[in-house]
Amino acid sequence: MATRPGITVAVHGATGRMGRVLVNAVDRADDLRLVATASRSTAIALTEAGEDARLHDTVELMLASERPNVVVDFSTRDAVLPLARAAARSGADFVTGTSGLTPEILHELRDIAADSNIGVMVGPNFSLGAVVLERLAQEAGRHFAYAEIIEMHHAGKADAPSGSAMATARGMLEARDGEEFANPAAQIENLENVRGGEIGGVAIHAVRMAGLMAHQQVLLGGPGETLTLRHDVIDRESYMLGVLLAIREVGNRRGQLTYGLGALLWPEQKGE
After folding, report:
1. Known catalytic residues?
2. pTM for the whole thing?
């Protein structure tokens, strides 16, 4: 895939769990140059950041002082649109892995990309294994009438269910041309909402507890058999190959929103 030599990168959310890993990954990449970092919390020093990286209190200062080619965001849902607009004003492409983006936010991001002619990439999950699981689930979902998803994350994850679980369910429905899965309700519910949330008949169950990182199971069933697909993240380094790929490719997709890493791994999958 084509890359732009010497792509300059700014990271927003740099002091968070993902942000700190990303700063180090960008700094190690030969074809990328980390030029700035920003965070709402500046209490944590980025001791392993490159010498050229500067930690700014505000996005505006970051963009004005460094003029990066790509702004990467791992922060909070409320920060995504203001940051994307700021990136567009500076002419920077925008990549976000922030979870829990609503259809309304995605629609606005699509408009920002088109109106400002920047590339915008949204990754519900940047793990290569998770994206492969999603594609396998789409194929398997064509052949089974029942499907449920169990997603399990660390106790500090803010949103539920995960963006990855929701993207998996929606992708399975698209593969079935919108035909919903069977979702039998319990005749007697001893606990309210015990069957979980639901997208197109796919029940989604969210687990949050200490000791977990990020895990997802897709369970499919038909007469006399079940199929289980599972993916486990044991280290946040697993996300870095996907994020770096997005940084390198987002500038080749100016004027459009690309949703999901699968659109980069499989070019026939156009994303948004």
Report:
1. 153, 157
2. 0.79
